[in-house]
Design a protein that fits this description.
Number of helices: 14
Largest sheet: 11 strands, mixed
Helix content: 25-40%
Number of strands: 17
Bound molecules: L-homoserine
Strand content: 15-25%
Distance between the termini: 58 Å
Oligomer: single chain
Length: 439
């Protein structure tokens, strides 16, 4: 069998990692595939800088046509990121009859439906294992390993940068801003780090996971998205006091025929496996009706882990090319004629437990006024803590609620926040600890 020829767009961190993985594991890949994978052309704006790897300079180019117009190239690997140039490249690759492998979660979360439809009608494969969870093969798990299950829920720590920040804030008591600088120096952050810290990167990934899990398009603008930039060491300390850790979770569930899709800082019991996932590591917890809870853990970013997933897709597509097979596994896990648009629950209607931190005056009747307003909105309190006042400033009262509806909690806080005894906007952090499952 001749080598399978590939064109690579983007010789950045992951592109360089991909060249390395294909080189260092050439023998084992050959034994698994029965053919070589050859990168015939690499296109990047910068073909001068030294990436610390051996590359034949003749395969480097700055012209996209050198890949897109080469009939020998069967697979286009898109590792440039962003949604403009990448979209044009993937569209052109599909219309030129080339299979696509991409790590681009933003591209798929925003344009996935269009690209999957184009690819499907052209008989083209799109591999996107690296788009969620870096080196963790979670896409294949949802498409194949758990294909016999109804997926009930997914809870994911899918952004290494924000997990690193929360971990350092938890372990060292550091402030958010200082740790963000540290995190960026590790090279995991997106080009625009607000994507990491404001939950946008997690929302891209959650939209992809939910789409695969439920066989329904999940538009990005229906994923409720809240980041970690307002989390303070004080909240982390209170969480610890109640036996919880704060993690940025992507959560998707199905109940009553409706899908929930949301990303926000979440308190989870500190003795759960997800709570132990620290630093830049990722983990995705998937509940299937037959299999029960399962957990997938590993490096969610970085050159070689991400390249591992990219190369895995290249091998899978190469196998199909060699076998001459048609689409064996549907691109979005469900056959396209069997996908349905499920209703997506409005955030207002989501049920959750809540942690509320009030800054109030220290005077008689404060607690009863606040709890009275919560009661008027049908919100039941499960615990309350007030720490003794250390200075002249406001005192802190924290409350944990039982299950409540988001819109009732927001309505109650809009009333408490304007009370003369309340000094600052109340902090709200959602809690996931199984009370819902317990009924
Ligand atoms: N910025 C992402 C993260 C990189 O921090 O996890 C991987 O998608």
């Amino acid at each position: 069998m001749d080598a399978i020829k590939v064109g690579l767009f983007g010789l950045g961190t992951i592109g360089t990692g991909l060249v390395k993985v294909l080189e260092q594991n050439r023998d084992v890949i050959r034994r698994r595939l029965g053919a070589e994978i050859e990168i015939k052309k690499i296109v990047d704006l910068d073909i001068i800088s030294d990436r610390g790897i051996r590359i034949d300079k003749r395969i480097l180019s700055t012209r996209a046509e050198d890949i897109l117009n080469d009939p020998e190239i069967r697979i286009v690997v898109e590792l440039i990121g962003g949604t403009d140039a990448a979209l044009a490249i993937v569209r052109k690759a599909i219309s030129s009859g080339k299979h696509v492998v991409t790590a681009n979660k933003a591209l798929l979360a925003v344009h996935g439906e269009e690209l999957f439809a184009l690819a499907s009608s052209a008989g083209i494969r799109i591999g996107f294992e690296a788009s969620v969870g870096g080196g963790i093969p979670i896409i294949r798990i949802l498409k194949e390993g758990l294909a016999a299950n109804r997926i009930e829920s997914i809870y994911g720590i899918v952004n290494g940068t924000s997990n690193y920040i929360l971990t350092r804030m938890t372990d060292a008591g550091s402030e958010f801003g200082a740790v963000l600088k540290e995190a960026m120096s590790h090279g995991y952050a997106e080009a625009d780090p607000t994507y990491d810290i404001e939950g946008i990167d997690s929302a891209h990934k959650l939209a992809i996971l939910a789409t695969l899990a439920f066989g329904s398009p999940i538009p990005l603008d229906r994923v409720y998205t809240e980041g970690i930039s307002k989390i303070t060491p004080v909240d982390i300390e209170y969480a610890r006091g109640f036996g919880y850790k704060i993690k940025l979770l992507g959560i998707t569930k199905i109940s009553g025929g409706e899908v929930e899709a949301r990303v926000h800082p979440t308190m989870i019991p500190e003795d759960t496996l997800l709570a132990q996932v620290d630093g830049v590591l990722n983990a995705i917890y998937v509940n299937g009706d037959a299999v029960g809870p399962t957990l997938y853990y590993g490096r969610g970013a970085g050159a070689l882990p991400t390249a591992s997933s990219v190369a895995g897709d290249m091998i899978e597509i190469s196998r199909d090319i060699i076998q001459g097979g048609a689409e064996r596994v549907p691109l979005c896990a469900f056959r396209k004629e069997d996908r349905i648009q499920l209703p997506i629950r409005n955030m207002d209607d989501v049920m959750s437990r809540y942690f509320l931190r009030f800054a109030t005056a220290d005077q008689p009747g404060v607690l009863s006024r606040i709890s009275g307003i919560l009661a008027d909105h049908g919100i039941s309190i499960s615990s309350v803590m007030q720490k003794g006042r250390k200075s002249d400033g406001p005192v802190t009262i924290v409350m944990m609620t039982h299950m409540a509806r988001e819109k009732d909690v927001k309505a109650a806080l809009s009333k408490t926040d304007v009370l003369d005894i309340v000094a600052e906007k109340t902090v709200l952090i959602r809690i996931e600890d199984g009370e819902e499952a317990a009924g």
